[in-house]
């Protein structure tokens, strides 16, 4: 079954743009990306759209459909009424390059700021051994496809460009949590307290656990409950632990 769908698609570049109306054929079983491709093939040949896998795995077709951050290739047209106007806009938290394509380099810069895995001393690569029960908690975070929809939806940066320098965003705070839970990570032995750094350097304190990031994650990762809240609890525990407090005071006096 086919019908003519009504679409409103943002067209423009870094200088500015506007929503344009289109009528495009929609066929049974199609997703939003199918329709965007048909629009590109039949009416708007220079429409810029980023995509690769069309299977929800490369994380490149992120956009906002009716204002909600979504993967276009995983958003079925059947969730919309046939007479509904479907609006497709670029991710709002990142600068537009052209049409539906945004510059997501903010995220790569944040990724580089996270200290990487510290190999355990005395073990060569190939000698690492981990038990499943020790990696079970953080394995969920490895499902991330880096679509950056969580980064786009988080209110801390969505409308607050000024917060970007101090806030890594849910995807990268989750990366810190993952490394903090890693059974072989030897960061602590080098004096790096990952959870404390999340709070002091990467802006964990900005997060007020609204769970919006979790709601839009196409991999259904429990970002807030399983990564951010446990890390907040650990930093709070340490902050208010009298022994840690005493240790900090002595250390500061020694210095
Ligand atoms: S839970 Fe925290 S990181 Fe996630 S969207 Fe809300 S404020 Fe942002
Ligand atoms: S955590 Fe989820 S929403 Fe965020 S970048 Fe990874 S897959 Fe995308
Ligand atoms: S095209 Fe790869 S996730 Fe949509």
UniProtKB/TrEMBL annotation:
It holds the Pfam family Fer4_8. Residues 5-92 form the 2Fe-2S ferredoxin-type domain. Pathway: Carbohydrate metabolism; tricarboxylic acid cycle. The keyword Iron-sulfur applies. InterPro entries: 2Fe-2S_ferredoxin-like_sf (IPR036010), 2Fe-2S_ferredoxin-type (IPR001041), 2Fe2S_fd_BS (IPR006058), 4Fe4S_Fe-S-bd (IPR017896), Beta-grasp_dom_sf (IPR012675), Helical_ferredxn (IPR009051), SDH/FRD_Iron-Sulfur (IPR050573), Succ_DH/fum_Rdtase_Fe-S (IPR004489). It comes from the Bacteria. The keyword Phosphoprotein does not apply. Its cofactor is [2Fe-2S] cluster; [3Fe-4S] cluster; [4Fe-4S] cluster. Signal peptide: none annotated. Keywords: 2Fe-2S, 4Fe-4S, Iron, Iron-sulfur, Metal-binding, Oxidoreductase. Gene3D superfamilies: 3.10.20.30, Alpha-helical ferredoxin. Belongs to the succinate dehydrogenase/fumarate reductase iron-sulfur protein family. This is Succinate dehydrogenase/fumarate reductase iron-sulfur subunit. It comes from Streptantibioticus parmotrematis.
């Amino acid at each position: 079954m086919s019908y003519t769908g009504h679409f409103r698609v943002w067209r423009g570049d870094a200088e500015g743009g506007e929503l344009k109306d289109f009528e495009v054929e929609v066929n049974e079983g199609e997703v939003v990306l199918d329709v965007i491709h048909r629009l590109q093939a039949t009416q708007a040949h220079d429409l810029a759209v980023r995509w690769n896998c069309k299977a929800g795995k490369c994380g490149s077709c992120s956009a906002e459909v009716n204002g909600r951050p979504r993967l276009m290739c995983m958003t079925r047209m059947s969730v919309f009424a046939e007479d509904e106007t479907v609006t497709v806009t670029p991710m709002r938290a990142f600068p537009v390059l052209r049409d539906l394509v945004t510059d997501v380099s903010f995220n790569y810069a944040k990724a580089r700021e996270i200290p990487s895995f510290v190999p355990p001393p005395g073990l060569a690569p190939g000698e690492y051994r981990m038990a499943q029960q020790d990696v079970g908690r953080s394995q969920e975070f490895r499902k991330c496809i880096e679509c950056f929809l969580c980064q786009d939806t988080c209110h801390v940066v969505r409308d607050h460009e000024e917060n970007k320098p101090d806030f890594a965003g849910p995807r990268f705070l989750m990366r810190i949590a993952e490394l903090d839970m890693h059974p072989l990570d030897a960061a602590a032995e080098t004096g790096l307290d990952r959870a404390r750094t999340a709070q002091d350097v990467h802006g964990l304190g900005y997060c007020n656990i609204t769970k919006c990031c979790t709601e839009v994650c196409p991999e259904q990762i429990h970002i807030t409950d399983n990564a951010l809240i446990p890390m907040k609890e650990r930093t709070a525990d340490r902050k208010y632990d009298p022994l840690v407090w005493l240790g900090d005071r002595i250390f500061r006096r020694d210095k």
